[in-house]
Amino acid sequence: MPYYRVVGEVPRKRHVQFRRPDGGLYAEELMGEEGFSSDSSLLYHRHLPTAIIKAEAVEPTTATALTPNLPLSPRHFRTQDLPAGGDLVTGRGLLAGNADVRMSYAASETPSELYRNSMGDECVYIASGRVRFESTYGAIEAGEGDYVVIPTGTIHRWVPQGRVTAFAIEAAGHIRPPKRYLSTHGQFLEHAPYCERDLRTPQETLTVEGEEVPVLVRTRGGLTRLVYRNHPFDVVGWDGCLYPYAFNINDFEPIVKRTHAPPPVHQTFEGPNFVICSFCPRPLDFHPDAVPIPYNHHNVDSDELMFYAGGDYTARKGSGIDVGSISLHPAGFTHGPQPGAVEAVIEAVRQGHTETSELAVMVDTFRPLDLGPAGLSVEDPAYAWTWAR
Length: 389
Fold this sequence. Notes:
Elements lengths: L4 E4 L18 E6 L7 E6 L6 E7 L16 E4 L14 E5 L3 E8 L5 E4 L4 E7 L1 E6 L2 E6 L2 E5 L5 E5 L3 E8 L27 E2 L10 E9 L2 E9 L4 E6 L4 E4 L18 E5 L2 E6 L2 E2 L19 E8 L14 E5 L11 H10 L4 E2 L2 E7 L4 E2 L1 H5 L12
Parallel strand pairs: 8-16
Antiparallel strand pairs: 1-18, 2-3, 3-18, 4-17, 5-24, 6-7, 6-27, 7-14, 9-12, 9-14, 10-11, 10-13, 12-19, 15-19, 16-17, 20-21, 21-26, 22-25, 23-24, 23-26
Keywords: Dioxygenase, Iron, Metal-binding, Oxidoreductase
GO molecular function, one term: metal ion binding
Pfam family, one: HgmA_N
């Protein structure tokens, strides 16, 4: 994260004695990236964060094997048809992924157990419902349209308030705002489509009493359930530049041109060999002769996965794409508007239509995406041929 925060009680200097009311020492925990060479935060625990009393291997509860996209084809997955179940961690159905990033979908109203992803950062988009995100840093109330960005190694849980649907992006590294939006010192620049004021972070510490508390941990070797002697939510204060935060897609300020702008203007975050973009309601292109709809394009270095979160998709009319759909357009395939969509939107502009209402989250990867079992289970097999109708 690009700016410093302090929550709760911390001593005046780092790594000095900081004592509890009973005279004992609080236990420091440094959460840091890239081997002490990047962003970090220092947390102060009532109990030792190292005290575990049990460890056991855990088998995944959902299928995680990936299948190459062969024969090469555009794909359409209907998440609306996926069953609800599990929680927002263990109930994730894998849609697509590669060595850099995995995308999943979950629908649940069940609180998750405590969870720590030690493989990389997560960015979870709340598609519908409301949920309380709780972590060692504190709590964040999140709802429809919120991205919740979770640093690697953060112990957390999800507590839904009714049924929640979510699109989860799990990285094999760190997810950050794009470098071109930031100054050399990390401040958001004036041309950035969002800024520090748009980010919501924990405002106070969160204390939960408990002993022998299990935490599900994901590592490159698989899943382990560690049992901690004391509840990890025992932090009295923390400070630093590394912490979870929420950002609502409706706070993204679209960048527009007189003619159609390419997807990089929608970029919201970047990760290792992938980017995340937000397509938001915005004015249509306003050059007198503009074609206010995406042109046919072939991203020779990228696979493009799009989650259609809301609004109207004029460019995809007749394809079967609807709210909740996932499209995957791989490198090696040219894609664009459905037949008839270009003339239809030009005519709509002539009739006074001036805005698009689409809302979508896109992940572009720079290595090919393989197909997940959840995606394949709800695939529309006719989608690839809709441009030839």
